[in-house]
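Structure tokens please, single chain.
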Amino acid sequence: MTYDPKLAAALSGATLRQLAHWRKVGVSRGAVLIPEISSTRPVLYSFRDVVALRTCVKLRNDASLQKIRRALDTLRGDLKERDHLSSYTLVADGSSIYLAEPDQAVDLVRKKANVVIHEMVDVLQPFYRDGRHIPSLLQPRAHVTVDPAIRGGVPVIKGTRVPYDEVAALLRDEVSPERISDYYPNVTATAALDAADFADYVDSYDPPKEPREAAAG
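Here you go.
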């Protein structure tokens, strides 16, 4: 499964402007995140990319883009960590950004080891960004789930392999929720409404406007 920028943004909490900015490579700096499926048109993100994007959004709530880039430079350069960004637990506390490991935490900005982190963050869980609720990545709605092992991570109706957008499309074609089971026997009316609600969320996803500098970050 691949995610276009619109769906990747809706699932991660990033803005489309941020996605574009974060995948750019500068003269003296690397990109924050280059999509591993395709970084040119059509731009396509992987499931791991979306997890990493949620990490970046969480960090951006508490740290400047400059600090995030400095932390990533330390991670990739000084520490020689080359795995996908989704493999790491990164936490910000307003003053710095840390790499959390089982036996220690490393301050990636000030480059200090054995730092105490008071709160660990699970980027898969729901969170708020500028007052907006960003849903759980693995279960964005009660009856809509995301599992990399099912259809490569496309959001589906819980307990099935039915893509949410196919169900939502039927409702938009004026098929009643109660009749969705005529097309997909395992999809209830309630699940169909959840699929439509999530489809509306993705289609209308338009994060709060930010100052130009913040929007680019």
